[in-house]
Design goal:
The protein has three helices and four strands; from the N terminus they run ββαααββ. By secondary structure, it is an alpha+beta fold. It starts with a strand and ends in a 5-residue tail after the last strand.
Length: 97
């Protein structure tokens, strides 16, 4: 999508393009629960997409750095049961290869 957008310095509107990127993301989460099954159940709740307030803050921060690009939407999702247990009660779990 192409659109005209005013520049931050009040100059003439510039033509901007909209780009969509897929980014591989690795997140390490620490969860306190009575057992591993319960801990796994809450993982997806924290992987929700950021709201408009968070996106607005990022855009304001980027703009203050002179980066004239605007994030419009961010969607996170987990692929199936991709959670890998790394540690339990401060003990590292040996992963089988």
């Amino acid at each position: 999508m192409t659109r005209r957008q005013p520049t931050s310095d009040g100059g003439a509107a510039a033509t901007v393009q909209e780009y969509a990127f897929q980014v591989k993301l690795v997140a390490v989460m620490r969860v306190r629960a009575t057992d591993e099954v319960l801990a796994r159940k809450v993982i997806s709740s924290v992987l929700g997409s950021p709201g408009t307030a968070e996106i607005r803050l990022v855009n304001e921060s980027n703009n203050s750095l002179g980066l004239e690009a605007t994030v419009t939407v961010v969607d996170f999702f987990a692929k199936g049961d991709s959670a890998v247990l790394l540690e339990s009660n401060d003990k590292r779990i040996r992963r089988r290869r």
